[in-house]
């Protein structure tokens, strides 16, 4: 068996580097979106309003009960159609379109946001109720207490768990190949079918994922250790 | 200054405060003593509405504070509170803990707030700790920071909820000294405490609570040397024996 890794690196390599750029773009924006949505979901699910709590519960179950890949298809193909048809119903002729990268970012934000909301919720619950009381006693409003006093330590305590989700998200970007985002898998697939360097191409692909995710997860572990050392008062 | 009228508080079926009437004048130092579970902390927490009374009225400077939600915030700005477990904000430095409320609520400039905070920290003997985080401080130091934090809002009145109960015995003195200083300066204070020596020495009035009632409300001399009620006598003989 003869393998041509040198050739694969030379010809597929540059394309994969571009692909890494796409992966990072989707992951960074998608992850920030996920954190924001995660906090929103967590706060709504803890609100005093029963209807809002129930509605959010149903939404989270919908998201958690369907595969991420299906959600990408839904956001990329179905939502634009639905919206276009809705607009047509009110006599607006506008063809709603969403780029595949945007669909990926939205999908990740919503899906990961729902999963991460549980982490965030438990981080919020774990904050000593005395913190809230101290804030209120100083004259802060409930909303100020939430934003200025409760959320910062909840965020800080969630960071190590966020890190694990970040590594997962980077790997999950491979799903985006199915909605034609030219990320790593799609590029490799195209390359392999043109050159028949199947073994080399996919091995190289796996290595690229490892090179990104292993240092990142090590970093997360170190961060976790460092944060555990700082005892919370 | 503060007037409590027929206040009662239920937790479900359990009545923890029963028909409490009380008047606190400006400049008074009032200590509330009593066995655990007697409702003294709950009562104190009703005074700044951290607990919402089930019925009754609370007047601050003549205004009924239970009428309007906006009044609650105003009340809390003027009535500071110090907690048993300090409740400092762990991600903020000592200085930030003290300046946070004046800057965000009273819109004091950062510079002004910092200067005021440093003065207050000097007052509680912790000026050199301004830039450290609360977790590096001892309990007694944390509690003194908490007092400085409450003072930073320029309160007219301070509530202390067992401020020395979570402290190692050798650290109690520093906190009590700060409180004595405040009392001398004329701060109106309501202190729930187990420190009988402090109650006796500093307070203008001592209130003995038991079972959700105010049993006795008198000068410290009367309460400690000549208690009128059987339950007060029993309680004092138990705690003073130790």
Q: Helices and strands in order, then pairings?
A:
The complex is a heterodimer of chains A (233) and B (242).
Chain A: H1 5-45, H2 50-64, H3 68-89, H4 100-125, H5 129-138, H6 142-172, H7 184-195, H8 198-229
Helix pairs in contact in A: 1-4, 1-6, 1-7, 1-8, 3-4, 4-6, 5-6, 6-8, 7-8
Chain B: E1 2-11, E2 14-24, E3 29-33, H1 40-47, E4 55-60, E5 63-64, H2 69-78, E6 79-82, H3 94-104, H4 110-123, H5 139-151, E7 157-161, H6 169-184, E8 188-192, H7 196-202, E9 205-210, E10 213-218, H8 220-225, H9 230-241
Parallel strand pairs in B: 3-8, 3-9, 6-7, 7-8
Antiparallel strand pairs in B: 1-2, 1-4, 4-5, 9-10
Helix pairs in contact in B: 3-4, 3-5, 4-5, 5-6
Placed side by side, the strands forming the largest sheet of chain B appear as 6-7-8-3-9-10
- Helix fraction of chain A? over 70%
Largest interface: A-B, 21 and 27 residues
Query: How many distinct helices of chain B?
Result: 9
CATH fold-level label of chain B: Rossmann fold
Largest sheet of chain B: 6 strands, mixed
Structural class by sheet pairing and helices of chain B: alpha/beta
Write the CATH architecture name of chain A: Orthogonal Bundle
What percent strand of chain B?
A: 15-25%
Task: Assess the beta-strand content of chain A as a share of residues.
Answer: under 5%
Helix-strand string of chain A: HHHHHHHH
InterPro entries (chain A): AA_ABC_transptr_permease_3TM, ArtM/GltK/GlnP/TcyL/YhdX-like, MetI-like, MetI-like_sf
Family (chain A): Belongs to the binding-protein-dependent transport system permease family.
Protein name (chain A): Amino acid ABC transporter membrane protein (PAAT family)
Transmembrane segments (chain A): 20-44, 56-76, 96-115, 202-223
